[in-house]
Amino acid sequence: MPSLKEIKTRIASVNNTRKITSAMKMVASSKLHHAQVAIENMLPYENMLEHILKTFLVATPDADTPFDVERPVKRVALLVFSSNSSLCGGFNGNIIKTFQNVVNDYLEQGIAKENIIVYPIGRKIAEKVAKMGLQAAGTFPELADKPNSETCRKIAAEIEKLWLDEQIDKVEMIYHHFKSAGTQILTRKTYLPIDLEEELNADKERDLSSNIVTKKAQEYLKTHGKDSSKKENEVVLPLNDNFLVEPDLKTVLTSLVPKLLHLMVYTALLDSNASEHAARMVAMQTATDNADELLRGLNLEYNKSRQAAITSELLDIVGGSVNN
What domains appear along the chain, each with residue ranges and CATH number? Predict the structure, then answer.
């Protein structure tokens, strides 16, 4: 049995660890709130662009653009979103595992390593790309911490140029879709060639109102209703859909679709950023709960050892007095 001093030292150590995990959970909660606000600020633009494109598609179902042409896949580009730091549960591990599976799939199809270009958003995935010996089209660690629309636009423009010059035949994105603070969905999505119908009808369900991470609490909110549901049901103000398109629809679509592609990159980045903070908050909450459980056990063990020591001393005293 460990001595009282050893148990006391361990209790102090666990207490210090608990303070750190609790503080990290609060920091992650604050960052998650800012990430949710960033997504919410982006939604009006997304809804308006979606409305315009849907209107054009309904007016001319056979409309096509240079970005929806399917070609035999010989060269591939991958946009992969991870974090810069760890301590966020399985967030980075899931991304890296999916990325490896995607790369292996392409290698089995006969695509050489040098024909796979990776855009690694985040330090963790950049390190994995370097270990695998794949070609990285730059490093973007700053984006994982501070999402920036202009940098996303430059990445999207670079990929679009490669696509139009036929230097790549397919582009995929791998990221976590932020559904709620307790649920992040690992997503693998085709970026190019773009399917406008599929992209405009994609799952955009998000709960941006709560930092609740436990399933029981989320179920309670669903059962008793929440004010955030009003926001989810809101739609953009109706537009006058009798558009006069000049010079022609194809030219306008060719201008609008790159904006949608830029928005896809930026949305994926915001989703990944919010998912990282949510995953870290869950991980730190779990670590704090485990520390609390460990402290309860250690305090019980300390009290038992202390009581045993006191009993032993009393017995020595009583035994000595009897002998005298």
Answer: 18-285 (3.40.1380.10)
88 annotated active-site: yes
Query: Mean pLDDT across the stretch 21-30?
Result: 93
Pairing of strands 170-180, 183-192: antiparallel
234 vs 40, higher pLDDT: 40
CA distance 324 to 314: 15
116 Cβ contact partners less than 8 Å away, ≥ 6 residues apart: 75, 76, 77, 78, 103, 106, 134, 135
Q: What is the pLDDT of residue 95?
A: 95
Residue-wise pLDDT tens digits, 70-118: 889 999 999 999 999 988 989 999 999 999 999 999 999 999 999 999 9
Under the banding of pLDDT at 50, 70 and 90, the label for residue 234 is very low
CA distance linking residue 133 with residue 95, whole number of Å: 18
pLDDT of residue 77: 95
Looking at residue 152, its pLDDT comes to: 93
From the list 53, 77, 88, 264, the catalytic residue is: 88
